């Protein structure tokens, strides 16, 4: 049985249908990368999985159980970090586990310290977000998401708010998580990164899964004309950077 099953997910905002009969599955330890143009439904799909949007219809199952109301199902890393500015890196990571009573104070602090060390920030535990670079803030956000021990870790354009020189450190952190066998869903515009990290690539356009397959299938042998057009446009932009 797949770890994640999404069945016929639909979501509208007013008269605009943003997700249309979206169905897919994801196995334990797989990395799904979602690509597509702005407004195609990528972020809405991610927010629907995480419970930040309520789908109009459809099912989301994690381990065969409805995901609604399960705080352990998904963890989300936002594109703009969303750290609490009044808290240190360590306090940002310990806050949610403390509120959810995920262990004793000492256990939660130890876990948070270990997570910050894993993302290369052992020397920044007492720094506030304003004292950290964008890349460092995003790595704190990754540690914060991991602290809740989610079954599936989600990233919404994790490098879009970063300068190019800071992007690499965040992408490397995600690659390291892949090596650990983490199940992840990543929305990204970084095509080279998508190729290197994904087990499965989904191209979503106009609220529909236009094409889905391995990186080799989708990048080297796309079947859909929409997919080919998008990838060609993305390649031109990527090479121009």
Would you write up a description of this structure?
This protein starts with a strand and ends with a helix. With 241 residues, the protein is of the alpha/beta class. The mean pLDDT is 92. It has 8 helices and 10 strands. Helix 2 (89-99) crosses helix 3 (105-118), helix 2 runs parallel beside helix 4 and helix 4 (134-147) packs parallel to helix 5 (164-179). The chain has helices at residues 42-49, 89-99, 105-118, 134-147, 164-179, 191-197, 215-220, 225-240, and strands spanning 4-13, 16-26, 31-35, 57-62, 65-66, 74-77, 152-156, 184-187, 200-205, 208-213.
Summarize the structure.
It contains eight helices and ten strands.
């Amino acid at each position: 049985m797949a770890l994640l099953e999404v069945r016929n997910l639909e979501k509208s905002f007013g008269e605009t249908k943003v997700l249309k009969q979206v169905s897919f599955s994801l196995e334990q330890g797989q990395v799904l990368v979602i690509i597509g143009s702005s407004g195609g439904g990528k972020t809405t799909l991610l927010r629907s999985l995480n419970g930040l949007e309520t789908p109009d219809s459809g099912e989301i199952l994690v381990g065969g159980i409805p995901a609604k109301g399960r705080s352990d199902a998904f963890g989300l890393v936002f594109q703009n970090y969303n750290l609490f500015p009044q808290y240190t890196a360590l306090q940002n990571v310990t806050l949610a586990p403390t509120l959810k009573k995920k262990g004793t104070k000492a256990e939660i602090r130890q876990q948070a310290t270990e997570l910050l060390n894993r993302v290369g920030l052992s020397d920044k535990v007492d720094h506030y977000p304003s004292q950290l670079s964008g890349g460092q803030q995003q790595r704190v956000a990754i540690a914060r998401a991991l602290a809740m021990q989610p079954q599936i870790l989600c990233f919404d354009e994790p490098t879009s708010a970063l300068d190019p020189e800071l992007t690499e450190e965040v992408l490397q952190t995600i690659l390291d998580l892949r090596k650990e066998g983490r199940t992840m869903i990543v929305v990204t515009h970084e095509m080279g990164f998508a190729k290197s990290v994904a087990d499965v690539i989904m191209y979503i356009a106009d609220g529909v899964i236009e094409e889905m397959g391995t990186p080799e299938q989708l990048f080297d042998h796309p079947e859909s004309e929409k997919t080919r057009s998008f990838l060609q446009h993305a390649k031109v932009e990527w090479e121009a950077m």
